[in-house]
Structure formats: C-alpha cells, structure tokens
What we know:
Layout: E1 10-14, H1 19-30, E2 34-39, E3 47-52, E4 55-62, H2 65-72, E5 76-79, H3 83-95, E6 100-103, H4 110-123, E7 127-129, E8 135-138, E9 142-145, E10 154-161, H5 164-173, E11 179-184, H6 195-204, E12 210-216, H7 221-232, E13 237-242, H8 266-275, E14 279-281, H9 284-299
Parallel strand pairs: 1-2, 1-5, 2-4, 5-6, 6-7, 10-11, 10-12, 12-13, 13-14
Antiparallel strand pairs: 3-4, 8-9, 8-11
Helix pairs in contact: 3-4, 5-9, 6-7, 7-8
Amino acid sequence: MSIFLNKDSKVIVQGMTGSEGMKHTTLMLAAGTDIVGGVNPRKAGSTVEFATPDGARQVKVYGTVKEAMDETGANVSVVFVPPAFTKSAVIEAVDAQIPLAIVITEGVAVRDTAEFFTYAQAAGTTRIIGPNCPGIISPGQSNAGIIPATIAGPGRIGLVSKSGTLTYQMMYELKEIGFSSAIGIGGDPIIGTTHIDCLAAFQDDPGTDAIVMIGEIGGDAEERAAEYIKEHVTKPVIGYVAGFTAPEGKTMGHAGAIVSGSSGTAAAKKEALEAAGVKVGKTPSEAAALMRQVMQGLIT
C-alpha cells in the first residue's frame, strides 16, 4: 500500500518540455511512473521521445490540463513551471479538478502560494503538495517529482519531511527496510499538504507500520503535529528536527525556517514531540537507528 500515489496513478507533467521537466520526466519514466502526457500550450499536439530502460517512449504534449485529463485519465500533475507562472499553472490544474498537484518549483512568491492554495481549498477537489518540494515516491510503484528512485525500495515505513535533502538521507539510512511512501512537503512558509495530512494518511494506510517525521526550526507545524499524534496516531513515530545549532532570529535555509525567541526552536519542537510519545533523534542517523529498533521490535 501507499499514500496519495500508487502503481495505478496516471501522471502528467506541466512544464515537461522545459529543461527540468525533460530531465525529471526521463527519471520518473525510468522509475516506472506511468507518465501519460505533458502540458505546454505552445507545443500542444507534439510528442516528445524519452529514452527508458524498456526503449524509447513517446509522450504527447497537450495544450491544457483538462485536455490531458480528458484524453488520458490523468489523476496526478507534477508542476515544473517557472515561479512567475506557477500560480496560473496550479489554478489551471485545480480548475480541471485533478486530484493531486505536486508543485516542485522553488522560489514561488508566498502571496502566489497563498492564493492558489486558498483557491484549491475552496474548490475542494485537488490536493496540493509543495511548492518547493521534492515530491512523493511510493517505491516500486510510482515516483512523482525529483526524489531519486534508486535510494530505497518498497517497505513498511512512511516518511514525511520538510527537507528534500533529509528525505533522501533518511531513505538511504533505512534502505534495507524500505518505504511504503516517502513525501517531501516543502519548507516554505505556506505549503499545501502538511505533516498532519501525511500522518493521518499513514495512520490509515494498512501498508505502513511506522512513521518517520522530519521537521525543522521555524513556525509551529511540528508542535501541531505533536498534538495530532497524541490524539490520533497509534503507530510508532520517530522524529528529527533540523536546526539545533541555528542562532535565534535567523533565517536558515528554507524560507519557513525563521526562529523567534523560544518559539519555533528545535529544542521546543523536540520537547513537544517527546511529550506526545515520539522518540526524537539528535541527528538523522540517530533517528534512523531509532526506527530500526522500532521495526525490529515489530518483527519480533
């Protein structure tokens, strides 16, 4: 099992014909993702050839998301559109009522994200992941985004992370156990799918036995997730919070990682998570070791 993405997902790529879109469409196809089309109004009707392990693959380019969905039955869009055009691309996907839109683009204006996320919430038909995220992978089934598919195979750990790099590291650290799904939600001040959304989905997923949650300094998302875990999550959760050495009042890396006083510090987040019964590693490797102990306990 998995969350949000599986072997039956039919994926389109908005911005497929750009450099990033071309590169990562090639990698997604190599991972077995069922990419059924691209979207670029200027190249509508053309086809693009991609080299895959099974030979050349022709992917048609459509003028709109709705046209692509009508012809292919697509239910996932991966957005590789430049920041200035991301809002209109996501709104187009929402108007077409695609169930899942994964916004990879970095550098999207916070106001634009607020507007397209509010628009999606009002429509009630499209889940947004991102922006500024690596996407989601359900190993052995489908990969929608930029997560390297060769890091880890299928298993029974669920992973949700604010950081793309730490997503990759945690997958590598636990590659011998494997993942049901790994999802990078992005670290911008405003994002679509949250830690809590993923925790709820993993809790309901019969293919997930335990969960790794990676957060970072800034905001209160991890504290809110801790409250949710305390009330609703019965599966083991292991945590890691990036930024223990960050000075207060500084923006560190992600735009969302802004610390003010004790609010949003790694120590405060660790305390909140531990109060909810979550074991928190001081390093990614320590968190991975804690998860290995959990999984060994579940097996024995």
